[in-house]
Design brief:
The chain has 495 residues and is mainly alpha-helical. The chain has a single domain (13-484), classed as Up-down Bundle (Growth Hormone, Chain: A). It has helices at 4-9, 15-25, 27-43, 48-77, 79-97, 102-128, 137-164, 169-189, 206-231, 234-258, 262-285, 291-299, 311-314, 316-338, 345-368, 378-406, 412-435, 446-472, 474-480, 484-494; strands at 303-304, 307-308. It has a two-stranded antiparallel sheet. A hairpin with a 2-residue loop joins strand 1 and strand 2 (307-308). Helix 7 (137-164) runs antiparallel to helix 16 and helix 14 packs across helix 16. Mean pLDDT is 81; it is low at 4-9 and 485-495.
Length: 495
């Protein structure tokens, strides 16, 4: 049996540092993600429809800019430099939002979304570069890193719920500012360890690097005003983002068709098919901070063991499941594979869609068991979040690890960003679904329960059907996904 010291020695450099950097970098996002709809409706008096539309665009920009972040970090600024610059913009953004007006919120969101949108891909790229394409430890590293991210979410959600009870929003956003700043401090502390190891920028000369760096900084400063303008027009911005997403999808199909290497081309086709499945999953998952949160506030008895539950604390069900379940799943998968079980990406994605469907289908059951005022028992919302969270573990960190396995080296940054762009597009669809949520009327939830039950049932069955389709495609996906190690003997024999 290897000792603990021997096991730690095998961990690639900087993976532990990236775990803690990831944890602190998510604090600001956790606060905004869980509070934005409540802040805009309760403090700024926005309608539920306008608030969920802003939340949809918030997710679209945050995840949509990940695609650009992968390109900008790998070719202009370096992933390390872009991450620090993005965190600095997040600090500025949270400070603006803490001022408490609608005008400052729009500017704060513009800065924050530029930062968070561009720097998340950098973290994932810094981590994936620590492993070779055939290194099985990558999946475990991403599961552990995902757990670290969700520790940050847990802290952010817990603090947000505490301040939500008194609606102390200025203090809450100040806390988010401090959390973002600590991520910058940690990065500087581990500056050499988190350097890039394999990006196109490393091949540039010193003069080319300075030129590209200047261009990258100019782009970084130019994005916030553009985002600010687009945030003023959520409807047209949503349409524009969907068109951009369609263009990116077509570009990836074009790159796949023209790619010369047969093995890599097959892997890229598998990536595209799995991406479609993930779009269904994330479109429902992204309803948590918008439509599901409004349902929880207005139609659920938020009490457990005699205590009132803040709306943001409900989302900590997700973080607890992920933090505990991530390492457990990593160990379980390794054990199953050691015994000869075939646990692969298509199976994991299929299971995630079924779990998401079940997570939504239990909500109408809870509505059927509502009290005289129309409020559902909390246990059904709790069960829904648990099912969704297990599904998340099977698709999100697995998806990040999948990029290193399926993406050709020169497309890794673009495909990592594209993977996150899917989540941004899903956020727009989640905003559309949440826009179907009825405005609270009257003193009870009875008037809106029927509409909620109908919407949740349709979305749940839609995810189940998508899971069934992906299950039928598992044999095809297994033929498409090929490791370099399995191809080498054939090539050698042919030679």
């Amino acid at each position: 049996m290897p000792t603990l010291k021997e096991r730690l020695a095998k961990i690639p450099e900087a993976t532990a540092a990236l775990f803690f950097i990831q944890m602190f970098s998510t604090l600001g996002f956790a606060v905004l993600y869980s509070t934005l709809v409540l802040y805009t409706t309760k403090h700024l008096n926005f309608s539920a429809k306008d608030a969920t539309a802003i939340m949809g665009v918030f997710g679209a920009f945050n995840y949509g800019l990940h695609l650009f972040g992968g390109y900008l970090g790998g070719r202009f600024l370096s992933n390390r430099n872009l991450f620090v610059g993005g965190m600095a913009l997040q600090v500025i953004g949270c400070a603006f939002i803490a001022l408490g007006s609608a005008a400052s919120m729009y500017w704060g969101l513009a800065f924050f979304l530029t930062g968070s949108g561009l720097n998340v891909t950098c973290l994932n790229m810094m981590l994936t570069q620590r492993f070779s394409p055939s290194d099985d430890r990558r999946e475990s590293a991403f599961l552990w890193n995902y757990a670290g991210m969700n520790i940050g979410f847990f802290i952010g959600f817990a603090v947000a719920g505490y301040f939500q009870q008194t609606e102390s929003y200025a203090r809450l956003f100040t806390f988010a500012t401090i959390g973002n700043f600590l991520a910058i401090v940690l990065t500087f502390t581990n500056w050499k360890a988190v350097r890039d190891l394999d990006t196109p920028l490393l091949a540039a000369t010193a003069k080319q690097f300075r030129t590209r760096c200047a261009i990258g900084i100019a782009i970084l400063l130019a994005v916030p005003p553009v985002v600010w303008v687009l945030l003023q027009h959520t409807a047209s911005t949503g349409i524009l983002m969907k068109i951009v997403s369609a263009g990116v999808a077509l570009s990836l199909v074009w790159l796949t068709v023209r790619h010369p290497d047969r093995r890599e081309k097959n892997n890229m086709w598998a990536y595209l098919i799995l991406t479609m499945g993930s779009l269904v999953f994330w479109s429902l998952y992204q309803m948590a901070p918008s439509g599901l949160q409004l349902f929880a506030v207005n139609n659920v008895r938020l009490h457990a063991f005699g205590h009132e539950i803040a709306p943001q604390w409900v989302q900590n069900i997700n973080t607890v499941v992920v933090v505990i379940g991530g390492p457990i799943l990593a160990a379980w998968f390794a054990k199953l594979r050691a015994r000869g079980w075939k646990v692969d990406i298509p199976q994991q994605f299929t299971a995630s869609l079924f779990l998401m469907g079940l997570g939504f289908l239990v909500l109408p059951v809870g509505i059927m068991l509502a009290d005289a005022t129309g409020r559902s028992p909390f246990v059904w919302l709790f069960l829904s979040y648990v099912l969704q969270s297990i599904g998340e573990l099977l698709i999100s960190p697995i998806g990040y690890a999948m990029i290193g396995k399926l993406a050709p080296a020169k497309y890794q940054g673009v495909m990592m960003g594209s993977w996150m762009l899917v989540t941004g597009l899903a956020s727009l669809f989640a905003g559309d679904f949440s826009g179907m949520v009825p405005e609270p009327t009257g003193s009870t939830a009875l008037t809106t329960n029927h509409d909620y039950a109908s919407l949740f049932a349709k979305l749940g069955w839609g995810s189940v059907v998508a899971g069934a389709i992906l299950m039928l495609l598992i044999p095809l996906l297994r033929r498409l996904i090929q490791d370099l190690a399995t191809e080498a003997p054939d090539k050698k024999s042919a030679a």
